[in-house]
Recover the amino acids of this structure.
């Protein structure tokens, strides 16, 4: 386990199956954005959210059944998984204009 994380697993530790569509989606994102890094977040019964940060700062996400499947999909797609949200990774993210408008609408609606 890394840095006190109790959710860090490798693909070899637990059997699972990464769906080809998930792997293809991650590969496609990475190819379109100059590479990518991922952070995997456990989201309860829904499974795991794979947040992808492209080399150009654009970000997106995919969902997997669990964190093991998410890690396997990233490994098959050739995308590095970060263990946590490091400052350098967050500084690299560039929210789109659509996201800024979306966040502004949510703030104004309160």
């Amino acid at each position: 386990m890394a840095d006190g994380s109790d959710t860090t697993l490798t693909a070899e530790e637990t059997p699972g199956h990464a769906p080809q569509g998930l792997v293809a989606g991650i590969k496609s994102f990475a190819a379109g954005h100059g590479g990518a890094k991922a952070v995997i977040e456990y989201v309860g019964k829904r499974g795991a959210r794979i947040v992808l940060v492209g080399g150009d700062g654009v970000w997106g996400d995919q969902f997997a059944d669990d964190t093991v499947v998410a890690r396997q999909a990233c490994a098959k797609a050739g995308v590095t998984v970060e263990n946590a949200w490091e400052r350098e990774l967050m500084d690299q993210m560039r929210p789109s204009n659509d996201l800024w408008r979306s966040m502004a609408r949510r703030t104004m609606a309160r």
